[in-house]
Amino acid sequence: MILQVALDLTDIEQAISIAEKAARGGAHWLEVGTPLIKKEGMRAVELMKRRFPDRKIVADLKTMDTGALEVEMAARHGADVVSILGVADDKTIKDAVEVARRYGIRVMVDLIGVKDKVKRAKELEKMGVHYILVHTGIDEQAQGKNPLEDLEKVVKAVKVPVAVAGGLNLETIPKVIELGATIIIVGSAITKAKDPEEVTRRIIDLFWGEYMMTIRKAMTDITDHIRSVAENLKLEQVRGLVDAMIGANKIFIYGAGRSGLVGKAFAMRLMHLDFNVYVVGETITPAFEPGDLLIAISGSGETKTIVDAAQIAKEQGGKVVGITSYADSTLGKLADVVVEIPGRTKADVPTDYIARQMLTQYKWIAPMGTLFEDSTMVFLDGIIALLMATFQKTEKDMKRKHATLE
After folding, report:
1. Domains of the chain in sequence order
2. Which of the residues 112, 182, 317, 333 has the least number of beta carbons within 10 Å of its own beta carbon?
3. Catalytic positions, written as ranges
4. How far apart are CA 264 and CA 150, in angstroms?
5. Alpha-carbon torsion (83, 87, 89, 91), positive or negative
6. Mean pLDDT in the chain?
């Protein structure tokens, strides 16, 4: 969760004073409220950013027209996030998103005044907005309304982060956390408090209970998955990998993204064990020749650069070990030996790593989307343990080859 403090004041000095206390209390984002912008103009945004360069500054413009113009103005004055009204014309919102993308900032669309919030939220998500705000205004609060019912429906309807605002305080915040809000916007409960810093700190403490639950749950899910992978390793696959390594003249390791980092860690340990090992892509990597081995790491088995390298290795008369989640993938079919490491469950995501990075589209069902890499890392550490025992190498032996120019 993110705590955004709404500075709905009209005096810039008072706003900065309260912002300082909220920041000391741990507030993540500081909102230059609509009244403050109307009173001071974009100067208020600029002053706030100068005073708090380490915080995200939200310009609550509530733009209804000329989205491109107003987002550009806010961006030029230091805003990191700009609010647009959900009742605005689609073109206004699309223009705002386009300009925000150009300046590297974000658009938050406020659903205040929108009748069918779920329907509009889905439309806004398709337009590419970054955040959707479920907001019960001050006048609505006076009539006894609150954002909780709408929040639950919107959170379930969209995948973009959902913010919530409207009379939130220490008593109501636990409920909006439970309903799945990502950004919790608090105004008067902090700005009118006798001790804004203390109230902010108490709100952040509420967040940390949820943070720790999330971390522990992710760690448990990951370790449970790795335990399952260990129990289901196929002896013939592991034996094929180890035999190929022991018989190789040179070992080349290649992976993309996180898989590449896992491969580099494995290569370092093999070097400590006196293997003749190289990482593909490094400037000192020599030519691949007959009798050499390529260990190619790709969860999907379809990453183009990895598949291309495997094809070249085969053409050069060497062997390929593919470490992948899919034995029937292109890499799996090319490899002499396949080690299957089950990973994340995928849906609607390009299989090629580079395409995924360019599109920045992820929809992982597994925690954090990194189960393949985590499992592969632990598996390869197990291989190192086996090789240490096989060649009677101790940690002391390996440390002799550890880098000294660091």
Report:
1. 2-216 (3.20.20.70), 233-401 (3.40.50.10490)
2. 317
3. 373
4. 48
5. positive
6. 91
